[in-house]
Amino acid sequence: MSQSRLWSPAVSRLEPYVPGEQPKVLNLVKLNTNESAFAPSPRVAKALSADQIDRLRLYPDPNSTNLKMAIARHFDLQVNQVFVGNGSDEVLAHAFYAFFQQASPLLFPDITYSFYPTYCNLYGIEHERIPLADDFSLNLADYHKPNGGIIFANPNAPTGMLVGLADIRALLEHNRDSVVLVDEAYIDFGGESAVSLINEFDNVLVVHTTSKSRALAGIRLGYALGHPGLIDALDRVKNSFNSYPVDRLAELAGIASFEDDDYFQQGCADVIANREFCVEQLTKLGFDVLPSAANFVFAKPTFAPAATVFEQLRERAVLVRYFNKPRISDYLRISIGSRADMKALVAALKDIVQKG
Ligand SMILES: *Cc1c(COP(=O)(O)O)cnc(C)c1O
């Protein structure tokens, strides 16, 4: 007999998020989960000293105050405007619980980060998907309607397309009584952050991750920035769930990363340069590439179906992401790697195009 008879009834109704594959073999060109191609700041390794390993017998600071101070300093905010969690996925989950369980539906784009509908399902949150335009642009005027909250990723995932700060400001001026959550996982690769709107609007929450632009996906560290009254709600949820979401090593690594701004800026600039190289090469090879402000591109091969090219790349040890979903099944999402990774991708694609 199936053990699902032992489950809470709600578990059978869950629709879990499926992350990109993390293959065990190492000699792959891995361009499928938008990780950084570069190592974290050398200061991170220094911060994780043997002395700190000894202290792992002790619980971490439940409030992660030193880390919040480093983040607040970086963004010129107060400590009580910062919330930290075990990856931005956890921060997002707490935000869904804290703000979006409302009488009116949560609004988000039809094509976006697929964890949003997953959290709605987990918490039973009513939601409405607003279609992106035919060219995949996000028109925030479409969100001027009654709602129990609004969430969008900027730049969007998996399109990489950016919406401007003026449009976000216009939305906030129109929408003052529900939380507008801007998921800025990729903002450091060319966008203008909505953090500048936090002191003006008490209902904007900006969520960031250290997984992409800070090359720390392995430590699981994300954060939210917003009015202290919003941070208070997140703290209430967090302290009802897990008192110590950020472990000692993650806190130290995070602080070290925020203290090395030169390294951070250089890493982002390198990703942007490699993205420009990649876009140029893909265009030459016959891809339609959407304008990207992220550390990945969303591109449609015109010489063969995307699903076929995905498989052919895989056979050549290059892993990208393919979504067999309405509207986007003709596209591949390709993470921006090192220059050598990008050259390996181009060589594999040339081989595919030649052999037909
Ligand atoms: C990668 C990503 C996240 C999750 O980041 P973690 O901090 O690694 O959990 C959140 N939102 C979007 C849009 C992402 O692409």
From TrEMBL:
InterPro entries: Aminotransferase_I/II_large, HisP_aminotrans, HistidinolP_aminotransfase, PyrdxlP-dep_Trfase, PyrdxlP-dep_Trfase_major, PyrdxlP-dep_Trfase_small. Keywords: Amino-acid biosynthesis, Aminotransferase, Histidine biosynthesis, Pyridoxal phosphate, Transferase. The keyword Transferase applies. GO terms for biological process: L-histidine biosynthetic process. Residues 28-349 form the Aminotransferase class I/classII large domain. Its cofactor is pyridoxal 5'-phosphate. Homodimer. PANTHER family: HISTIDINOL-PHOSPHATE AMINOTRANSFERASE (PTHR43643:SF3), HISTIDINOL-PHOSPHATE AMINOTRANSFERASE 2 (PTHR43643). This is Histidinol-phosphate aminotransferase. It comes from Simiduia agarivorans (strain DSM 21679 / JCM 13881 / BCRC 17597 / SA1). The lineage of its organism: Bacteria, Pseudomonadati, Pseudomonadota, Gammaproteobacteria, Cellvibrionales.
